[in-house]
UniProtKB/TrEMBL annotation, chain A:
It comes from Streptomyces sp. NBC_00119. Keywords: ATP-binding, Nucleotide-binding, Transport. This is ABC transporter ATP-binding protein. It holds the Pfam family ABC_tran. Transmembrane segments: none annotated. Residues 6-236 form the ABC transporter domain.
UniProtKB/TrEMBL annotation, chain B:
Its main location: membrane. InterPro entries: Bact_Polyamine_Transport, MetI-like, MetI-like_sf. This is ABC transporter permease. Belongs to the binding-protein-dependent transport system permease family. CysTW subfamily. Gene3D superfamilies: MetI-like. The lineage of its organism: Bacteria, Bacillati, Actinomycetota, Actinomycetes, Kitasatosporales. SUPFAM superfamilies: MetI-like. GO terms for biological process: transmembrane transport. Residues 65-258 form the ABC transmembrane type-1 domain. GO terms for cellular component: plasma membrane. Keywords: Cell membrane, Membrane, Transmembrane, Transmembrane helix, Transport.
Length: 358, 271
Protein backbone atom coordinates (compact mmCIF):
# COMPACT_ATOMS: atom_id res chain seq x y z
CA UNK A 1 0.00 0.00 0.00
CA UNK A 2 1.36 3.38 -0.94
CA UNK A 3 2.30 5.86 1.76
CA UNK A 4 2.43 3.12 4.40
CA UNK A 5 5.77 2.73 6.12
CA UNK A 6 4.72 -0.18 8.31
CA UNK A 7 1.77 -2.48 8.21
CA UNK A 8 1.14 -5.16 10.85
CA UNK A 9 -1.55 -7.75 10.31
CA UNK A 10 -2.89 -10.04 13.06
CA UNK A 11 0.53 -10.09 14.65
CA UNK A 12 0.96 -12.57 17.49
CA UNK A 13 3.86 -13.63 19.66
CA UNK A 14 3.89 -16.28 22.37
CA UNK A 15 6.73 -17.03 24.74
CA UNK A 16 6.01 -20.53 25.94
CA UNK A 17 2.49 -20.33 27.30
CA UNK A 18 2.45 -16.56 27.73
CA UNK A 19 0.97 -14.63 24.89
CA UNK A 20 2.90 -11.34 24.78
CA UNK A 21 1.22 -10.03 21.64
CA UNK A 22 -2.30 -11.26 21.05
CA UNK A 23 -3.28 -10.06 17.59
CA UNK A 24 -2.18 -6.57 16.61
CA UNK A 25 -3.16 -4.73 13.43
CA UNK A 26 -1.51 -1.37 12.79
CA UNK A 27 -0.78 0.88 9.87
CA UNK A 28 1.87 3.54 10.27
CA UNK A 29 2.17 6.19 7.58
CA UNK A 30 5.36 7.52 5.99
CA UNK A 31 6.92 10.32 7.98
CA UNK A 32 4.70 9.80 10.99
CA UNK A 33 5.81 10.13 14.61
CA UNK A 34 3.97 7.10 15.96
CA UNK A 35 4.02 6.11 19.63
CA UNK A 36 3.22 2.77 21.18
CA UNK A 37 2.08 3.51 24.71
CA UNK A 38 1.26 1.03 27.43
CA UNK A 39 2.23 -0.35 30.83
CA UNK A 40 5.16 -2.76 31.09
CA UNK A 41 4.22 -6.20 29.83
CA UNK A 42 1.61 -4.84 27.46
CA UNK A 43 3.48 -6.13 24.41
CA UNK A 44 4.62 -2.81 22.92
CA UNK A 45 8.34 -3.60 23.08
CA UNK A 46 7.74 -7.09 21.66
CA UNK A 47 5.93 -5.53 18.69
CA UNK A 48 8.89 -3.17 18.18
CA UNK A 49 11.36 -6.07 18.35
CA UNK A 50 9.31 -7.95 15.77
CA UNK A 51 9.39 -4.95 13.42
CA UNK A 52 13.18 -4.78 13.88
CA UNK A 53 13.46 -8.53 13.29
CA UNK A 54 14.86 -9.59 16.69
CA UNK A 55 11.83 -11.74 17.40
CA UNK A 56 9.97 -13.88 14.90
CA UNK A 57 6.17 -13.56 15.14
CA UNK A 58 4.21 -16.66 16.09
CA UNK A 59 1.60 -15.61 13.53
CA UNK A 60 0.75 -12.63 11.35
CA UNK A 61 2.69 -10.52 8.88
CA UNK A 62 4.91 -7.46 8.92
CA UNK A 63 5.19 -5.23 5.86
CA UNK A 64 7.73 -2.46 5.46
CA UNK A 65 6.99 -0.04 2.61
CA UNK A 66 4.69 -2.59 1.02
CA UNK A 67 7.13 -5.52 1.15
CA UNK A 68 6.51 -8.53 3.37
CA UNK A 69 9.55 -8.83 5.66
CA UNK A 70 8.06 -11.19 8.24
CA UNK A 71 10.72 -13.87 7.68
CA UNK A 72 13.67 -11.57 7.03
CA UNK A 73 16.66 -11.16 9.35
CA UNK A 74 17.28 -7.79 11.04
CA UNK A 75 20.12 -6.99 8.62
CA UNK A 76 17.77 -7.41 5.67
CA UNK A 77 15.34 -4.71 6.85
CA UNK A 78 15.59 -1.01 6.21
CA UNK A 79 14.95 -0.03 9.83
CA UNK A 80 17.38 1.01 12.54
CA UNK A 81 16.82 0.87 16.27
CA UNK A 82 17.72 3.10 19.19
CA UNK A 83 17.99 0.71 22.12
CA UNK A 84 16.84 1.36 25.63
CA UNK A 85 20.40 0.76 26.92
CA UNK A 86 21.79 2.45 23.75
CA UNK A 87 23.96 -0.63 23.01
CA UNK A 88 26.94 1.45 21.90
CA UNK A 89 29.85 -0.86 21.10
CA UNK A 90 32.25 -0.37 24.03
CA UNK A 91 35.38 -1.36 22.09
CA UNK A 92 34.85 1.23 19.36
CA UNK A 93 35.21 5.00 19.33
CA UNK A 94 32.12 7.11 18.78
CA UNK A 95 33.17 7.68 15.17
CA UNK A 96 33.52 3.94 14.59
CA UNK A 97 30.19 3.34 16.30
CA UNK A 98 28.38 5.87 14.15
CA UNK A 99 30.14 4.74 10.96
CA UNK A 100 29.46 1.05 11.58
CA UNK A 101 26.39 0.72 9.36
CA UNK A 102 28.28 2.49 6.55
CA UNK A 103 31.31 0.23 7.01
CA UNK A 104 29.13 -2.87 6.78
CA UNK A 105 27.66 -1.48 3.56
CA UNK A 106 31.18 -0.93 2.19
CA UNK A 107 30.92 2.85 1.92
CA UNK A 108 34.47 4.14 1.16
CA UNK A 109 36.40 5.09 4.26
CA UNK A 110 36.74 8.82 3.55
CA UNK A 111 33.04 9.18 2.88
CA UNK A 112 31.91 7.22 5.90
CA UNK A 113 34.17 9.21 8.23
CA UNK A 114 32.83 12.44 6.82
CA UNK A 115 29.25 11.27 7.26
CA UNK A 116 29.92 10.01 10.79
CA UNK A 117 31.40 13.38 11.76
CA UNK A 118 28.46 15.15 10.21
CA UNK A 119 26.02 12.90 12.11
CA UNK A 120 27.85 13.52 15.38
CA UNK A 121 27.76 17.26 14.69
CA UNK A 122 24.01 17.07 14.08
CA UNK A 123 23.53 15.79 17.64
CA UNK A 124 25.91 18.47 18.97
CA UNK A 125 28.85 16.15 19.63
CA UNK A 126 31.49 17.64 17.30
CA UNK A 127 35.01 16.70 18.27
CA UNK A 128 33.85 13.74 20.38
CA UNK A 129 34.53 11.23 17.59
CA UNK A 130 37.70 9.80 19.14
CA UNK A 131 36.15 9.08 22.53
CA UNK A 132 34.80 5.80 23.85
CA UNK A 133 31.18 5.34 24.97
CA UNK A 134 32.34 4.87 28.58
CA UNK A 135 33.60 8.46 28.61
CA UNK A 136 30.15 9.92 27.98
CA UNK A 137 27.19 10.90 30.12
CA UNK A 138 23.80 9.24 29.66
CA UNK A 139 22.41 12.07 27.59
CA UNK A 140 25.45 12.08 25.31
CA UNK A 141 25.25 8.31 24.81
CA UNK A 142 21.62 8.71 23.91
CA UNK A 143 22.53 11.23 21.21
CA UNK A 144 25.29 8.99 19.83
CA UNK A 145 22.83 6.09 19.61
CA UNK A 146 20.51 8.39 17.68
CA UNK A 147 23.31 9.52 15.33
CA UNK A 148 24.36 5.90 14.76
CA UNK A 149 20.83 4.86 13.87
CA UNK A 150 20.21 7.87 11.61
CA UNK A 151 23.49 8.02 9.68
CA UNK A 152 22.42 5.27 7.29
CA UNK A 153 19.18 7.15 6.47
CA UNK A 154 16.80 4.26 7.22
CA UNK A 155 13.16 4.55 6.14
CA UNK A 156 12.01 3.85 9.66
CA UNK A 157 13.59 4.54 13.03
CA UNK A 158 12.51 2.41 15.99
CA UNK A 159 13.01 3.85 19.47
CA UNK A 160 12.65 1.58 22.51
CA UNK A 161 12.03 3.80 25.54
CA UNK A 162 15.10 5.82 24.58
CA UNK A 163 14.54 8.49 27.22
CA UNK A 164 13.78 6.14 30.09
CA UNK A 165 17.26 6.30 31.63
CA UNK A 166 17.55 10.09 31.60
CA UNK A 167 16.66 12.45 34.40
CA UNK A 168 13.57 14.62 34.08
CA UNK A 169 15.21 17.84 32.79
CA UNK A 170 17.27 16.04 30.18
CA UNK A 171 14.28 13.98 29.17
CA UNK A 172 12.13 17.02 28.49
CA UNK A 173 14.97 18.58 26.50
CA UNK A 174 15.47 15.39 24.45
CA UNK A 175 11.72 15.17 23.76
CA UNK A 176 11.85 18.54 22.04
CA UNK A 177 15.07 17.63 20.18
CA UNK A 178 13.79 14.26 18.97
CA UNK A 179 10.64 15.84 17.66
CA UNK A 180 12.67 18.55 15.87
CA UNK A 181 15.00 15.97 14.28
CA UNK A 182 12.07 13.89 13.11
CA UNK A 183 10.35 16.89 11.56
CA UNK A 184 13.56 17.94 9.82
CA UNK A 185 14.54 14.62 8.22
CA UNK A 186 10.96 13.45 7.75
CA UNK A 187 11.43 9.72 8.34
CA UNK A 188 8.99 7.52 10.23
CA UNK A 189 9.61 7.25 13.97
CA UNK A 190 8.09 4.42 15.99
CA UNK A 191 8.48 5.33 19.62
CA UNK A 192 7.83 2.95 22.50
CA UNK A 193 7.09 4.48 25.88
CA UNK A 194 5.16 3.86 29.08
CA UNK A 195 5.08 7.58 29.82
CA UNK A 196 1.72 8.97 28.70
CA UNK A 197 2.88 12.56 28.89
CA UNK A 198 5.82 11.80 26.60
CA UNK A 199 3.52 10.10 24.11
CA UNK A 200 1.01 12.96 24.20
CA UNK A 201 3.61 15.69 23.67
CA UNK A 202 5.61 14.10 20.86
CA UNK A 203 3.34 11.94 18.73
CA UNK A 204 1.32 12.45 15.60
CA UNK A 205 -0.60 9.33 16.53
CA UNK A 206 -0.59 6.96 19.50
CA UNK A 207 -1.49 3.29 19.86
CA UNK A 208 -2.43 2.39 23.43
CA UNK A 209 -1.41 -1.19 24.31
CA UNK A 210 -2.89 -3.37 27.00
CA UNK A 211 -2.30 -7.09 27.56
CA UNK A 212 -0.92 -7.73 24.10
CA UNK A 213 -3.61 -5.84 22.22
CA UNK A 214 -4.15 -2.35 20.87
CA UNK A 215 -6.97 -0.66 22.78
CA UNK A 216 -7.09 2.51 20.71
CA UNK A 217 -5.22 4.27 17.92
CA UNK A 218 -5.60 8.00 17.50
CA UNK A 219 -4.14 11.46 17.72
CA UNK A 220 -3.09 12.63 21.20
CA UNK A 221 -6.25 14.75 21.43
CA UNK A 222 -8.49 11.83 20.48
CA UNK A 223 -6.78 9.54 22.96
CA UNK A 224 -7.02 12.05 25.77
CA UNK A 225 -10.45 13.49 25.16
CA UNK A 226 -12.22 10.54 23.54
CA UNK A 227 -10.85 7.41 25.19
CA UNK A 228 -12.28 4.38 23.43
CA UNK A 229 -12.18 2.01 26.39
CA UNK A 230 -12.18 2.29 30.18
CA UNK A 231 -8.54 1.15 30.12
CA UNK A 232 -7.46 4.06 27.90
CA UNK A 233 -9.43 6.50 30.04
CA UNK A 234 -7.61 5.18 33.10
CA UNK A 235 -4.13 4.84 31.66
CA UNK A 236 -3.93 8.18 29.85
CA UNK A 237 -4.49 10.99 32.30
CA UNK A 238 -6.14 10.55 35.67
CA UNK A 239 -8.82 7.91 35.88
CA UNK A 240 -12.09 9.72 36.49
CA UNK A 241 -15.03 7.52 35.70
CA UNK A 242 -18.69 7.81 36.65
CA UNK A 243 -20.86 4.76 36.13
CA UNK A 244 -24.04 2.99 37.23
CA UNK A 245 -26.37 4.81 39.65
CA UNK A 246 -24.03 7.76 40.07
CA UNK A 247 -23.92 8.35 36.31
CA UNK A 248 -27.70 8.10 36.11
CA UNK A 249 -28.22 10.69 38.87
CA UNK A 250 -25.54 13.14 37.78
CA UNK A 251 -25.43 12.88 33.99
CA UNK A 252 -28.85 11.37 33.46
CA UNK A 253 -27.88 8.18 31.73
CA UNK A 254 -26.84 4.76 32.96
CA UNK A 255 -23.46 4.45 31.24
CA UNK A 256 -19.79 4.96 31.93
CA UNK A 257 -18.56 8.54 31.62
CA UNK A 258 -15.06 9.95 31.70
CA UNK A 259 -14.49 13.52 32.88
CA UNK A 260 -10.97 14.96 32.90
CA UNK A 261 -10.08 16.45 36.31
CA UNK A 262 -9.09 19.88 34.94
CA UNK A 263 -12.55 20.35 33.42
CA UNK A 264 -14.27 20.10 36.82
CA UNK A 265 -14.89 23.26 38.83
CA UNK A 266 -14.95 23.02 42.60
CA UNK A 267 -17.63 25.41 43.92
CA UNK A 268 -19.50 26.10 47.14
CA UNK A 269 -22.23 23.57 47.85
CA UNK A 270 -24.89 26.21 47.42
CA UNK A 271 -23.68 27.34 43.98
CA UNK A 272 -26.39 27.11 41.34
CA UNK A 273 -25.64 24.99 38.29
CA UNK A 274 -24.80 27.00 35.18
CA UNK A 275 -26.78 26.19 32.04
CA UNK A 276 -25.48 23.22 30.09
CA UNK A 277 -23.53 22.09 33.14
CA UNK A 278 -23.72 18.89 35.10
CA UNK A 279 -23.34 19.23 38.83
CA UNK A 280 -22.84 16.90 41.76
CA UNK A 281 -22.51 17.60 45.44
CA UNK A 282 -20.09 15.80 47.69
CA UNK A 283 -17.54 15.91 50.50
CA UNK A 284 -13.86 16.66 49.98
CA UNK A 285 -12.07 13.50 51.09
CA UNK A 286 -8.53 14.57 50.34
CA UNK A 287 -6.66 17.65 49.20
CA UNK A 288 -3.30 17.28 47.46
CA UNK A 289 -1.26 20.43 47.05
CA UNK A 290 0.86 20.22 43.87
CA UNK A 291 2.44 23.66 43.86
CA UNK A 292 0.96 25.05 40.66
CA UNK A 293 -2.35 23.29 41.19
CA UNK A 294 -4.40 21.45 43.79
CA UNK A 295 -6.03 18.07 43.37
CA UNK A 296 -9.34 17.45 45.18
CA UNK A 297 -10.69 13.97 45.75
CA UNK A 298 -14.42 14.30 46.27
CA UNK A 299 -16.79 11.58 47.46
CA UNK A 300 -20.07 12.19 45.68
CA UNK A 301 -23.40 11.94 47.48
CA UNK A 302 -24.59 9.97 44.44
CA UNK A 303 -21.78 7.46 45.01
CA UNK A 304 -18.35 7.18 43.49
CA UNK A 305 -15.37 9.48 43.71
CA UNK A 306 -14.15 12.16 41.32
CA UNK A 307 -10.84 13.95 41.09
CA UNK A 308 -10.85 17.65 40.28
CA UNK A 309 -7.80 19.74 39.44
CA UNK A 310 -7.74 23.49 40.13
CA UNK A 311 -5.00 25.94 39.21
CA UNK A 312 -3.66 27.74 42.27
CA UNK A 313 -4.20 31.19 40.79
CA UNK A 314 -4.93 33.02 44.01
CA UNK A 315 -5.15 30.31 46.63
CA UNK A 316 -2.28 29.16 48.86
CA UNK A 317 -1.55 25.83 50.50
CA UNK A 318 -3.23 26.93 53.76
CA UNK A 319 -6.41 27.93 51.95
CA UNK A 320 -6.79 24.64 50.17
CA UNK A 321 -5.87 22.50 53.16
CA UNK A 322 -8.79 24.06 55.05
CA UNK A 323 -11.16 22.63 52.45
CA UNK A 324 -10.58 19.03 53.56
CA UNK A 325 -13.87 17.58 54.82
CA UNK A 326 -15.96 20.49 53.54
CA UNK A 327 -19.06 20.23 51.38
CA UNK A 328 -18.66 21.24 47.74
CA UNK A 329 -20.45 21.21 44.43
CA UNK A 330 -18.61 19.89 41.38
CA UNK A 331 -19.64 21.33 38.04
CA UNK A 332 -18.53 20.78 34.49
CA UNK A 333 -19.82 21.56 31.04
CA UNK A 334 -21.77 18.67 29.64
CA UNK A 335 -19.61 18.52 26.53
CA UNK A 336 -16.76 17.40 28.79
CA UNK A 337 -18.38 14.26 30.09
CA UNK A 338 -17.53 11.72 27.48
CA UNK A 339 -19.32 8.41 27.32
CA UNK A 340 -16.79 5.59 27.35
CA UNK A 341 -17.84 2.62 25.24
CA UNK A 342 -18.25 -0.46 27.41
CA UNK A 343 -15.42 -2.96 27.04
CA UNK A 344 -16.25 -4.28 23.59
CA UNK A 345 -14.01 -7.33 23.92
CA UNK A 346 -14.51 -9.41 27.03
CA UNK A 347 -10.89 -10.54 26.68
CA UNK A 348 -9.58 -7.17 27.82
CA UNK A 349 -10.06 -8.24 31.40
CA UNK A 350 -8.84 -11.75 30.76
CA UNK A 351 -5.48 -13.11 31.70
CA UNK A 352 -3.15 -13.30 28.72
CA UNK A 353 -3.55 -16.44 26.67
CA UNK A 354 -7.06 -17.26 27.83
CA UNK A 355 -8.91 -15.44 25.09
CA UNK A 356 -8.22 -18.18 22.53
CA UNK A 357 -10.98 -20.32 23.91
CA UNK A 358 -13.60 -17.60 23.50
CA UNK B 1 34.90 -0.55 58.76
CA UNK B 2 36.98 0.45 61.74
CA UNK B 3 38.61 -2.31 63.75
CA UNK B 4 39.94 -2.12 67.26
CA UNK B 5 43.73 -2.02 67.65
CA UNK B 6 44.13 -5.59 68.99
CA UNK B 7 41.88 -6.91 66.24
CA UNK B 8 43.94 -5.09 63.64
CA UNK B 9 47.20 -6.49 64.97
CA UNK B 10 45.84 -10.04 65.23
CA UNK B 11 44.51 -9.96 61.68
CA UNK B 12 47.80 -8.61 60.34
CA UNK B 13 49.80 -11.34 62.07
CA UNK B 14 47.41 -13.99 60.77
CA UNK B 15 47.73 -12.62 57.24
CA UNK B 16 51.53 -12.48 57.48
CA UNK B 17 51.65 -16.08 58.76
CA UNK B 18 49.38 -17.26 55.99
CA UNK B 19 51.48 -15.69 53.28
CA UNK B 20 54.69 -16.95 54.94
CA UNK B 21 53.45 -20.55 54.92
CA UNK B 22 52.71 -20.31 51.20
CA UNK B 23 55.64 -18.31 49.94
CA UNK B 24 58.65 -19.02 52.20
CA UNK B 25 58.98 -22.65 50.98
CA UNK B 26 58.84 -21.43 47.38
CA UNK B 27 61.53 -18.91 48.16
CA UNK B 28 63.64 -21.68 49.77
CA UNK B 29 63.41 -23.73 46.58
CA UNK B 30 64.77 -20.77 44.65
CA UNK B 31 67.60 -20.21 47.16
CA UNK B 32 68.52 -23.89 47.25
CA UNK B 33 68.79 -23.99 43.49
CA UNK B 34 71.73 -21.62 44.01
CA UNK B 35 73.08 -23.39 47.12
CA UNK B 36 76.55 -24.94 46.54
CA UNK B 37 75.86 -27.57 49.23
CA UNK B 38 74.54 -30.68 47.46
CA UNK B 39 72.33 -31.65 50.45
CA UNK B 40 70.89 -28.12 50.72
CA UNK B 41 72.61 -27.37 54.01
CA UNK B 42 71.60 -24.18 55.79
CA UNK B 43 72.77 -21.47 55.67
CA UNK B 44 74.08 -21.71 52.10
CA UNK B 45 77.87 -21.41 52.07
CA UNK B 46 77.76 -19.33 48.90
CA UNK B 47 76.14 -18.94 45.49
CA UNK B 48 76.54 -21.16 42.46
CA UNK B 49 74.97 -21.54 39.05
CA UNK B 50 76.38 -25.03 38.70
CA UNK B 51 73.00 -26.71 39.22
CA UNK B 52 71.35 -24.43 36.68
CA UNK B 53 73.99 -25.48 34.13
CA UNK B 54 73.47 -29.14 35.11
CA UNK B 55 69.73 -28.81 34.71
CA UNK B 56 70.17 -27.15 31.33
CA UNK B 57 72.24 -30.10 30.17
CA UNK B 58 70.04 -32.76 31.77
CA UNK B 59 68.29 -34.38 28.83
CA UNK B 60 65.63 -35.89 31.12
CA UNK B 61 64.54 -32.49 32.40
CA UNK B 62 64.60 -30.95 28.94
CA UNK B 63 62.52 -33.74 27.42
CA UNK B 64 60.08 -33.46 30.31
CA UNK B 65 59.79 -29.69 29.84
CA UNK B 66 59.12 -30.16 26.13
CA UNK B 67 56.47 -32.83 26.85
CA UNK B 68 54.80 -30.52 29.38
CA UNK B 69 54.67 -27.67 26.88
CA UNK B 70 53.14 -29.91 24.22
CA UNK B 71 50.59 -31.33 26.66
CA UNK B 72 49.73 -27.84 27.93
CA UNK B 73 49.28 -26.39 24.45
CA UNK B 74 47.21 -29.35 23.29
CA UNK B 75 44.92 -29.33 26.30
CA UNK B 76 44.54 -25.55 26.10
CA UNK B 77 43.60 -25.71 22.42
CA UNK B 78 40.90 -28.33 23.07
CA UNK B 79 39.64 -26.42 26.09
CA UNK B 80 39.42 -23.13 24.18
CA UNK B 81 37.33 -24.59 21.39
CA UNK B 82 35.00 -26.74 23.49
CA UNK B 83 34.79 -24.41 26.50
CA UNK B 84 33.85 -21.43 24.36
CA UNK B 85 31.23 -23.36 22.42
CA UNK B 86 29.59 -24.68 25.58
CA UNK B 87 29.65 -21.24 27.19
CA UNK B 88 27.87 -19.71 24.18
CA UNK B 89 25.33 -22.51 24.10
CA UNK B 90 24.53 -22.21 27.81
CA UNK B 91 24.38 -18.43 27.84
CA UNK B 92 22.66 -17.66 24.56
CA UNK B 93 20.16 -20.47 24.12
CA UNK B 94 17.48 -22.02 26.24
CA UNK B 95 17.22 -25.74 25.82
CA UNK B 96 16.23 -28.81 27.75
CA UNK B 97 18.95 -29.82 30.24
CA UNK B 98 20.85 -26.54 30.05
CA UNK B 99 21.48 -26.31 33.79
CA UNK B 100 22.49 -29.96 33.91
CA UNK B 101 25.03 -29.40 31.15
CA UNK B 102 26.67 -26.42 32.79
CA UNK B 103 26.89 -28.43 36.03
CA UNK B 104 28.41 -31.42 34.27
CA UNK B 105 30.96 -29.18 32.54
CA UNK B 106 32.13 -27.61 35.78
CA UNK B 107 32.16 -30.86 37.77
CA UNK B 108 35.56 -32.25 36.64
CA UNK B 109 37.44 -29.48 38.42
CA UNK B 110 35.92 -30.54 41.73
CA UNK B 111 36.45 -34.26 41.18
CA UNK B 112 39.49 -35.68 42.95
CA UNK B 113 42.32 -36.01 40.42
CA UNK B 114 42.83 -39.60 41.42
CA UNK B 115 39.26 -40.48 40.47
CA UNK B 116 39.54 -38.72 37.11
CA UNK B 117 42.90 -40.43 36.58
CA UNK B 118 41.72 -43.95 37.35
CA UNK B 119 38.51 -43.49 35.39
CA UNK B 120 40.32 -42.16 32.32
CA UNK B 121 42.94 -44.88 32.56
CA UNK B 122 40.27 -47.58 32.53
CA UNK B 123 38.34 -45.89 29.75
CA UNK B 124 41.37 -45.41 27.54
CA UNK B 125 42.45 -49.01 28.02
CA UNK B 126 39.02 -50.40 27.19
CA UNK B 127 38.12 -48.10 24.33
CA UNK B 128 41.33 -46.89 22.73
CA UNK B 129 43.65 -49.86 23.07
CA UNK B 130 41.54 -52.19 20.88
CA UNK B 131 41.71 -49.44 18.24
CA UNK B 132 45.47 -49.54 18.42
CA UNK B 133 45.89 -46.26 20.28
CA UNK B 134 47.84 -46.80 23.49
CA UNK B 135 48.42 -44.48 26.40
CA UNK B 136 50.77 -41.70 25.36
CA UNK B 137 50.97 -37.94 24.98
CA UNK B 138 47.54 -37.86 23.31
CA UNK B 139 45.83 -39.43 26.32
CA UNK B 140 47.59 -36.96 28.64
CA UNK B 141 46.25 -34.08 26.54
CA UNK B 142 42.69 -35.45 26.66
CA UNK B 143 42.98 -36.02 30.41
CA UNK B 144 44.15 -32.46 31.02
CA UNK B 145 41.48 -31.05 28.71
CA UNK B 146 38.73 -32.42 30.99
CA UNK B 147 39.50 -29.88 33.66
CA UNK B 148 41.03 -27.17 31.43
CA UNK B 149 37.64 -26.77 29.73
CA UNK B 150 36.22 -25.62 33.06
CA UNK B 151 38.39 -22.52 33.39
CA UNK B 152 37.78 -21.46 29.79
CA UNK B 153 34.04 -22.08 30.20
CA UNK B 154 33.91 -20.11 33.46
CA UNK B 155 35.82 -17.17 32.03
CA UNK B 156 33.81 -16.94 28.84
CA UNK B 157 30.41 -17.40 30.46
CA UNK B 158 31.20 -14.75 33.08
CA UNK B 159 32.02 -12.34 30.27
CA UNK B 160 28.91 -13.25 28.28
CA UNK B 161 26.70 -12.78 31.33
CA UNK B 162 27.97 -9.25 31.76
CA UNK B 163 27.60 -8.46 28.08
CA UNK B 164 24.08 -7.40 27.11
CA UNK B 165 22.66 -9.20 24.08
CA UNK B 166 21.73 -5.82 22.65
CA UNK B 167 25.28 -5.29 21.28
CA UNK B 168 24.82 -8.12 18.84
CA UNK B 169 21.27 -7.06 18.05
CA UNK B 170 22.50 -3.54 17.37
CA UNK B 171 25.14 -4.81 14.95
CA UNK B 172 22.59 -6.86 13.03
CA UNK B 173 20.16 -3.97 13.12
CA UNK B 174 22.84 -1.81 11.48
CA UNK B 175 23.18 -4.33 8.67
CA UNK B 176 25.84 -6.84 9.76
CA UNK B 177 25.02 -10.48 9.05
CA UNK B 178 25.53 -13.10 11.74
CA UNK B 179 29.17 -13.98 11.04
CA UNK B 180 30.16 -10.35 10.58
CA UNK B 181 28.52 -9.59 13.93
CA UNK B 182 30.61 -12.31 15.57
CA UNK B 183 33.84 -10.97 14.02
CA UNK B 184 33.20 -7.28 14.71
CA UNK B 185 31.35 -7.36 18.02
CA UNK B 186 31.20 -10.66 19.88
CA UNK B 187 34.77 -11.87 19.42
CA UNK B 188 36.49 -8.57 20.34
CA UNK B 189 34.36 -8.36 23.47
CA UNK B 190 35.12 -11.90 24.67
CA UNK B 191 38.72 -12.02 23.42
CA UNK B 192 40.39 -11.07 26.68
CA UNK B 193 38.27 -13.62 28.54
CA UNK B 194 39.41 -16.26 26.05
CA UNK B 195 43.07 -15.34 26.52
CA UNK B 196 42.70 -15.31 30.30
CA UNK B 197 40.95 -18.68 30.24
CA UNK B 198 43.60 -20.11 27.94
CA UNK B 199 46.46 -18.92 30.14
CA UNK B 200 44.86 -20.38 33.25
CA UNK B 201 44.19 -23.64 31.42
CA UNK B 202 47.83 -23.82 30.36
CA UNK B 203 49.01 -23.17 33.91
CA UNK B 204 46.66 -25.87 35.25
CA UNK B 205 47.93 -28.42 32.77
CA UNK B 206 51.55 -27.47 33.27
CA UNK B 207 51.72 -28.49 36.94
CA UNK B 208 49.27 -31.39 36.86
CA UNK B 209 50.61 -34.65 38.24
CA UNK B 210 47.86 -37.02 39.37
CA UNK B 211 45.83 -37.33 36.17
CA UNK B 212 49.09 -37.31 34.19
CA UNK B 213 50.42 -40.30 36.09
CA UNK B 214 47.38 -42.38 35.15
CA UNK B 215 47.05 -41.28 31.56
CA UNK B 216 50.67 -41.08 30.40
CA UNK B 217 52.04 -43.98 28.45
CA UNK B 218 55.48 -45.44 29.06
CA UNK B 219 58.23 -42.99 28.24
CA UNK B 220 55.96 -39.95 28.48
CA UNK B 221 57.11 -37.82 31.36
CA UNK B 222 55.89 -34.29 32.04
CA UNK B 223 57.97 -31.93 34.13
CA UNK B 224 56.06 -32.42 37.39
CA UNK B 225 56.21 -36.19 36.96
CA UNK B 226 59.93 -35.97 36.28
CA UNK B 227 60.44 -33.89 39.43
CA UNK B 228 58.43 -36.35 41.48
CA UNK B 229 60.42 -39.35 40.31
CA UNK B 230 63.78 -37.61 40.80
CA UNK B 231 63.09 -36.11 44.22
CA UNK B 232 64.02 -39.31 45.98
CA UNK B 233 67.49 -39.42 44.43
CA UNK B 234 69.90 -37.39 46.57
CA UNK B 235 72.19 -37.10 43.58
CA UNK B 236 69.53 -35.21 41.63
CA UNK B 237 68.24 -32.99 44.48
CA UNK B 238 69.93 -29.75 43.34
CA UNK B 239 68.71 -30.15 39.77
CA UNK B 240 65.18 -30.81 41.05
CA UNK B 241 65.38 -27.51 42.92
CA UNK B 242 66.31 -25.73 39.70
CA UNK B 243 63.49 -27.33 37.74
CA UNK B 244 61.04 -26.53 40.52
CA UNK B 245 62.18 -22.90 40.49
CA UNK B 246 61.67 -22.77 36.71
CA UNK B 247 58.22 -24.28 37.10
CA UNK B 248 57.27 -21.64 39.67
CA UNK B 249 58.39 -18.85 37.37
CA UNK B 250 56.62 -20.36 34.38
CA UNK B 251 53.34 -20.66 36.32
CA UNK B 252 53.48 -17.17 37.73
CA UNK B 253 53.57 -15.48 34.33
CA UNK B 254 50.32 -16.86 32.86
CA UNK B 255 48.42 -16.39 36.12
CA UNK B 256 49.60 -12.81 36.42
CA UNK B 257 48.60 -12.05 32.84
CA UNK B 258 45.25 -13.79 33.21
CA UNK B 259 44.46 -11.75 36.33
CA UNK B 260 45.23 -8.53 34.54
CA UNK B 261 43.14 -9.50 31.54
CA UNK B 262 39.97 -10.31 33.38
CA UNK B 263 38.90 -8.79 36.63
CA UNK B 264 35.90 -11.11 36.56
CA UNK B 265 37.91 -14.30 36.28
CA UNK B 266 35.97 -17.14 37.79
CA UNK B 267 39.04 -19.28 38.18
CA UNK B 268 38.84 -22.82 39.30
CA UNK B 269 39.63 -24.25 42.67
CA UNK B 270 42.83 -25.86 41.51
CA UNK B 271 44.73 -22.64 41.07
Amino acid sequence: MEGMAIRLQSLRKSFGRTEAVAGVDLEIADGEFFSMLGPSGSGKTTVLRMIAGFEAPTAGTIELAGTDVTRRAPFERDVHTVFQDYALFPHMTLEQNVAYSLKVRKVPKAERLARAREALASVRLEGFGGRRPSQLSGGQRQRVALARALVGRPKVLLLDEPLGALDLKLREQMQVELKAIQREIGITFVFVTHDQEEALTMSDRIAVFNQGRVEQVGTPAQIYERPATPFVAGFVGTSNLLSGDAAEQVVGDRATYSIRPEKIHVLKESAAAEPEHASATGTVAEVVYLGDATRFLVDLDAGGRLTALQQNLETSSEDVAALRGSRVSLQWHRRHNFQVPEASRPSVQDAPGKHVSK
Amino acid sequence: MNLSRPARITLRIAAALGFAVIYVPLFLVLVNSLNPDRSSGWPPPGLTFEWWADAWHSSGARDALWTSVKAGLGATAIALVLGTLIAFACQRYRFFGRDAISFVVVLPIALPGIVTGVALNTAFRTVLEPLGVGLGLFTVIVGHATFCIVVVFNNVIARLRRMPGSYEEAAMDLGAHSFRTYLDITFPLVRSALVAGGLLAFALSFDEIVVTTFTAGPGIQTLPVWIFSNMARPQQAPVVNVVAAVLVLLSVIPIYLAQRLSSDTASGSRI
